[in-house]
Automatic annotation (TrEMBL):
PANTHER family: CARBOXYLASE:PYRUVATE/ACETYL-COA/PROPIONYL-COA CARBOXYLASE, METHYLCROTONOYL-COA CARBOXYLASE SUBUNIT ALPHA, MITOCHONDRIAL-RELATED. This is propionyl-CoA carboxylase. GO terms for molecular function: ATP binding; metal ion binding; propionyl-CoA carboxylase activity. It comes from Bosea caraganae. Keywords: ATP-binding, Biotin, Ligase, Lipid degradation, Lipid metabolism, Magnesium, Manganese, Metal-binding, Nucleotide-binding. Residues 1-451 form the Biotin carboxylation domain. It catalyses: propanoyl-CoA + hydrogencarbonate + ATP = (S)-methylmalonyl-CoA + ADP + phosphate + H(+). The lineage of its organism: Bacteria, Pseudomonadati, Pseudomonadota, Alphaproteobacteria, Hyphomicrobiales. Residues 120-317 form the ATP-grasp domain. Pathway: Metabolic intermediate metabolism; propanoyl-CoA degradation; succinyl-CoA from propanoyl-CoA: step 1/3. The keyword Membrane does not apply. Its EC number is 6.4.1.3.
Amino acid sequence: MFTKILIANRGEIACRVIKTARRMGIKTVAVYSDADRDALHVEMADEAVHIGAAPAAESYLQIDKIVAACKQTGAEAVHPGYGFLSEREAFAQALKENGIVFIGPNPGAIAAMGDKIESKKAAAAANVSTVPGHLGIIEDPAHAVKISDEIGYPVMIKASAGGGGKGMRIAHSAGEVAEGFARAKSEAASSFGDDRVFVEKFIVDPRHIEIQVLGDKHGNVIYLGERECSIQRRNQKVVEEAPSPLLDEATRRKMGEQAVALAKAVNYDSAGTVEFVAGQDKSFYFLEMNTRLQVEHPVTEMITGVDLVEQMIRVAYGEKLAIRQEDVKLNGWAVESRVYAEDPTRNFLPSTGRLVTYRPPAEGPDGEATVRNDTGVFEGGEISIYYDPMIAKLVTHAPTREAAIKAQARALDAFAIDGIRHNIPFVSALMQHPRWIAGNLSTGFIAEEFPEGFALPEPKGETALRMAVIAIACDHKLNQRKRHVSAQMEGWRKVEFERTRIVALGKASFEGQVTEQGGTLTIEIGERSIAVASGWRPGEPVWQGTLDGVKVAAQVRAILNGVALGHAGAYANARVYTPREAELAALMPEKVAADTGKFLLCPMPGLVKAVSVKVGQEVKAGEPLCMVEAMKMENVLRAEKDVTIAKILAKEGDSLAVDAVIMEFA
């Protein structure tokens, strides 16, 4: 077995590979850019080598620097993770030429399957059903429009070397094709160093289902079930699960056998994923093959018990697969939420900055469920503008889908992050969504269920009641602490705190009575009498305990006269008053938000790539004003109404903070 391997990646996946290598007794080498000098993967590895400046094109995409780092440290093999160089034939070939083993498929398989245009040709030759489209190179926008007109709208414009939603646009008209073509080419060039794009028919109301395959260098290939990845935004997955609630055993076997046949046709010899677009009627079409480890691989590991990273390492070393197809058994259900540094209330725009608070839920058993958290960050660390916005992958596994979803919801409630915007409010709300719970999914789920965008839900029903009880419990604990403050003036009578509490929770109000006897806290609200048990202490970002014996968690942040709470997908400020305080609070005037209608504000931290207007120019609604790039995504900001440009306060190349003023309208 290898004695030392280098991980040509960063963040969560680099940490993930290091964990398995450490368990196998293999030493690890990390590589890092200027921005990642203090990153978690650098700390975890046995050795670390600096490879360049912060932009990926100057560090993680530099093949010669990776090869040099291998030679410098004596690393015998390289695991590429996902993204960056993981699907570049030239990288695998360069390692081979330097006597370094690539922990991934052979260069020929990458060439045949890693390129999306070539993979569709190979699939068609192998009689695999494919989506109608144009598989040749498209030279210019006019050519793209002509092809799209022939295919019929809507169409998908995709980067040939793409992945992770980069270099991908859906177009419903010729005008959208022309702009989408330019954006896709630009993103593809900056993210993958390859600006080729192709066009295919976009299947309406589709589901995204993929098959995990695993092959060795001796001709053996198996499949390890499927993953459903239909919950996406901007064509990037947000929530995945295994198995899929759509498939039956017969369809699963048919998709698996097609995936294996395709892998064998190109002599595939590592972990890989064959992706399909599936109709609600269980029909399916080959979409592409990812010749690498997928981001969502943990859900497959949880239901099969197979460590895919370990298998990749063993296969690369030349070992035969020890697992046969008949050995693969699917056990229970797994759900994964990708925790991103982004603001779901601003159309999921990226967020950067320092992780002032980062407290994930405890890993391990949670009743009948198991919690796993794959991450590459730490409290106090920085979320950079240069790379993918992923913070962590939270995975829960349980005997049934319902139990896995409930465990996921509990774990999300116990996940505290502060200092940046993040998508935990969205995925928490999703876990409560009736359509998600029913398994009635499609890749259009987010657009269909949140057509006006995502807003933090107001607490209702049992959720609101629980939050009110938690707010009173927190207030009671704070009052207990006040009783023990030293150097207080001695009074003629013992201080007693008001037993009645009024909780203003969003637009609702709750009245509760607090009783504590023999260490047991009871809160009476309406006709309910709820026993509360918790070890929460003031300052902790998560309240965990039981309400009438039921395990409950909530995110907690101190605010004036109460706490800000997040629980079961609902978020609200809970102001806790005595009856007299509540009377006075009702008389306070509401603060009116400032009018920002005459300004274009930067919706996320990013780099100004282009300014499309001039001072004095009249702009119609929908016309582009400027383009801001953040985390490898180009975002065109458009006029929401007819305006005249009065001032332009930012120029191309400026780095802007969120809500920075870009221009002012007359």
